[in-house]
Amino acid sequence: MNGMTFDAIAARITQVCEEAMVVRSENGQPFVRVPAAALPRVAALLRRDPALLCDALMDLTGYDRLKYPGNEASPANDAIAVVYLLFSQQHHHRVMLEVQAPRALCAVPTVSGLWPAALYFEREVFDLLGVQFVGHPSLERILCPDDWVGHPLRKDYLYPAQYHGVPHLREGQHFDGAPRRQGDPEPAPTPAPTKKGHP
Amino acid sequence: MAVADLPKPGNDPHEQIVLTAVDEFLAWGKENSLFYLLFATACCGIELMQAGGPRYDVDRLGMIPRATPRQADLMIVAGTITHKMAGVVRTLWEQMTEPRWVVSMGSCANSGGPFSKWSYSVLNGVDKYVPVDVYIPGCPPRPEALIDGVMALRERVRRYRTMGVRDRDPHVVQGADCRFGSHPGKPEPQA
């Protein structure tokens, strides 16, 4: 029961999706990046092809590519990436997929029809990163309260100044370098620290 | 004369009659039966369980965990309270019968603790939602610290007047910036 190698899986994906791109990073875990439009057919191939048969969605997560390390070469790429970690319990091979969606119109097709485990994962990614999973039956927030504003794991997220009348900081509390909050003015240049020793 | 100072009654029927003030008697009963609500949201709950275990054994103080707020006198807020959880905490507190007491256990419940600086979701102190009687510092506090806080709370319970003229809400605590009257976790009802 030896599974396919990553290269063989990547080649198989490339057969149904020519735009698929193999990314080999320095951490030794290569992945396949596919466009969002091609995700349904790539996912269906991975799920149903007898040679691939990735029947377990181990994880579905996401990250913000804004200010991402190694992103300096292409600073225009501020997309939201969704990552799929797939595993075949029959063939014992695994593959990582990545889909990027533009920041403003952040929509990715759902894979919950193929892997029901994605129902909760996609709700989490929607909650924290604001990715709209098209076709998800009930895309609601899962961690934050329902009336929360914004998606906290986006790197340009502004902290709420208060929630239901309870301020984010305690009275008189101030932190240097604390994140900017919604409604805060533009940060002023920090004054030079005054050197005051103990009396 | 406080009830605790009285000599133990003997077999003589004359020694089995105790005269005391009603307040003293009720307070004596309350401070020795602080049933606490089983409610833990983070790692402080592990220390709370330790305090209830055989080594520290808060049962000997009359503290018995209750699974429902209707039967609880004391709420030990043990752990991080998020904005989402805060409304639940307030609801549980409202369901407790008076007189009710709140102990804030650990840095998270006191002030947000390690999350007070960078977290968007953690409430900076449970006293924003419920009035707190005793704050116990520590991250998490050891069971001895919890028991020490409970002993401080027992002093408050002893001073609490059940009968006669008293404050409308006995939970006005010095230094607590709690909000009374309204439920900050729920929208106000529309008139």
The main β sheet of chain A shows up as:
5 strands, mixed
Number of strands of chain B: 5
Number of separate domains of chain A = 1
Indicate the percent of residues in helices of chain B.
25-40%
Q: What is the CATH T-level topology of chain A? A: Beta Polymerase, domain 2
Query: Would you list the SSEs of chain A in sequence order as H and E?
Result: HEEHEEEEHEEE
Instruction: Tell me the strand order in the biggest sheet of chain B.
Output: 2-1-3-4-5
Based on CA atoms alone, the radius of gyration of chain B comes out at: 18 Å
From the coordinates shown, what is the CATH architecture of the domain at 35-159 in chain B? 3-Layer(aba) Sandwich
Chain pair forming the biggest interface: A-B, 20 and 21 residues
- Rg of chain A from C-alpha positions? 21 Å
Fold and architecture overview:
The complex is a heterodimer of chains A (199) and B (191). By secondary structure, chain A is α/β, with parallel strands linked by helices. Chain A has helices at 6-16, 39-48, 118-129, and strands at 21-23, 31-34, 56-64, 80-87, 94-101, 107-109, 132-134, 162-163, 166-167. With 191 residues, chain B is an alpha/beta fold. Chain B has a domain at 35-159: 3-Layer(aba) Sandwich (Rossmann fold), CATH 3.40.50. Chain B contains five helices and five strands; from the N terminus they run H-E-H-E-E-H-E-H-E-H. In chain B, strands 2-1-3-4-5 form a five-stranded parallel beta sheet. In chain B, strand 4, helix 4 and strand 5 (134-136) form a beta-alpha-beta unit. Chain B is elongated, with a radius of gyration of 18 Å. Chain B starts with 21 loop residues before the first helix and ends in a 32-residue tail after the last helix. The chains are: A alpha/beta (199), B alpha/beta (191). Chain A binds chain B through residues 143-145, 152, 157, 159-160, 163-171, 173, 175, 178-179, and chain B through 83-84, 86, 111-112, 116-118, 120-121, 123-125, 128-129, 177, 179, 184-187.
